[in-house]
Design brief:
This protein has 11 helices and 10 strands. The protein is α+β, with helices and mostly antiparallel strands. It has 3 domains: 7-119, Butyryl-Coa Dehydrogenase, subunit A, domain 1 (Orthogonal Bundle), CATH 1.10.540; 121-232, Beta Barrel (Butyryl-CoA Dehydrogenase, subunit A, domain 2); 236-385, Butyryl-CoA Dehydrogenase, subunit A, domain 3, CATH 1.20.140.10. It is globular, with a radius of gyration of 21 Å. Bound molecules: flavin-adenine dinucleotide (FAD).
Length: 386
């Protein structure tokens, strides 16, 4: 077994780490407070190649592997998870499906302009009545005279409403299968298409500098060739996309957990009580040791899942394990980091208070912990019955 990173992987990690430390971290508190999308940081990350990290070079991306991407997401999220999720949503959810399932013509038309992340693209699966149950989407796309007519709405869609967003991939119901189940397909809808509008941005507990909106489609028409991949493959494509997304959200969680440990360690070495630094009390040392242990395990799991994905090996189970474990480790770390800060940790000005608010979403977005545990359990049961 080789645990060494390649030179290329180390290069991406160091590049992202340096940028996160110098450019993102000093702005994280302000971005969160003002709930401002960081256009300048995204522009710079695009220039550095981070916003198109796994997108093939031939279309204008960086052509990096998935391990490099996860290392970069971890480093960026260590500084701020709003920026981390903006990067993850662009690479995994926005550009990823077009790179994976698009025709040559679609890649030229839709992927090339967004491949370096200077322009963004979103993925719209979630709806009012279809969250965990993505197969239950009610948005419809009907083929009429060579054009898809989309009607319905989407909810919570990341990167959908910035001034640099080019469009959204919509999971829609396109018919009924012979067995009576819905047929779903994905349709590429450019931002300026008549009949497609975005609602007001959400006011959120975390990821406050990231962009999320509800989307509305009313008689929204796009050409027939905007169907992504084969008709009826929509749900399968989305589940495959979420597989990679879960590994990357695992990496984001590891970054946030590491930030919690960084802050807790530094505070424990500064704060004195009973004439000693907190770091001299064994109870505090054990808390720090537990955080370090769990982060190490979570990071290893994320990287193993990413390594499998790079080899195009099955990784649904590993992706779910990485996502559930890393997001729950991050939550425990945020909790302990606040505890080590005492009353100071409850004050909005401390980074750990922000981390504690931000951490919860990791157990919800791109598949809740319950749904990921179902995937892991299903794998166990299937293995038993073989
Ligand atoms: C900030 C943010 C950004 C997001 N970005 C995007 C995006 O870019 N694109 C997109 O399409 N979506 C996005 N989402 C949506 C996100 O993926 C969903 O919120 C998530 O999948 C859960 O769906 P839900 O919120 O409808 O919860 P529900 O599905 O209603 O679940 C509610 C609770 O019930 C549990 N539950 C549901 N079904 C079962 C079951 N069968 N067994 C046991 N428990 C169950 C869930 O685990 C959860 O605890 C985003 C959400 C947020 C908050």
């Amino acid at each position: 077994m080789d645990f060494d990173l390649s030179e290329e992987q180390q290069r991406w990690r160091d590049l992202a780490g340096e940028f996160a430390r110098d450019a993102i971290r000093p702005r994280a508190e302000e971005l969160d407070r003002r709930q401002e999308f960081p256009y300048d940081l995204v522009r710079e990350m695009s220039r550095l190649g981070l916003m198109g990290l796994t997108i093939p070079r031939e279309y204008g991306g960086s052509g990096g592997d998935f391990v490099s991407y996860c290392l970069a997401v971890e480093e960026i999220s260590r500084a701020d998870t709003s920026v981390g999720i903006t990067l993850e949503s662009q690479v995994s959810l926005g550009a990823g499906p077009i790179a994976d399932f698009g025709s040559e013509e679609q890649k030229e038309r839709f992927l090339r302009p967004i491949a370096d992340g200077s322009r963004l693209w979103a993925l719209g699966i979630t709806e009012e009545h279809a969250g965990s149950d993505a197969a239950g989407v009610e948005t419809t796309a009907e083929l009429r005279d060579g054009r898809w007519v989309v009607n319905g709405s989407k909810k919570f869609i990341t990167n959908s409403g910035t001034t640099i967003t080019d469009g959204v991939t919509v999971l829609a119901r396109t018919g009924t299968r012979e067995d009576g189940r819905p047929e779903t397909s994905t349709i590429l809808v450019p931002q300026d298409t008549p009949g497609y509008t975005r609602g007001e941005p959400y006011v959120k507990t975390g990821w406050r500098a990231a962009d999320q909106h509800p989307l509305y489609f009313e008689g929204c028409e796009v050409p027939e060739e905007n169907l992504l991949g084969p008709r009826g493959a929509g749900l399968r494509q989305c589940l495959r996309t979420l597989e990679g997304g879960r590994i990357a959200v695992g990496a984001l969680s590891v970054g946030l957990a590491q930030a919690c440990l960084d802050e807790a360690l530094s505070y424990a070495q500064r704060r004195c009580q009973f004439g000693r630094h907190l770091s001299e009390f064994q109870v505090i040392q054990f808390k720090l040791a537990d955080m370090a242990m769990e982060i190490e395990l979570a990071r290893n799991m994320v990287l193993k899942a990413a390594w499998l994905k790079d080899r195009e090996r099955p990784c649904a189970r590993e992706a779910s394990i990485a996502k559930v474990y890393a997001s729950e480790v991050a939550k425990r770390c945020a909790d302990q980091a606040v505890q080590i800060h005492g009353g100071e940790g409850f004050m909005e000005h401390t980074p750990v208070a922000r981390y504690w608010r931000q951490v919860k979403i990791n157990e919800i977005g791109e598949g809740t912990s319950e749904i990921n545990r179902q995937i892991i359990a299903r794998g166990l049961l299937q293995a038993r019955s073989r």
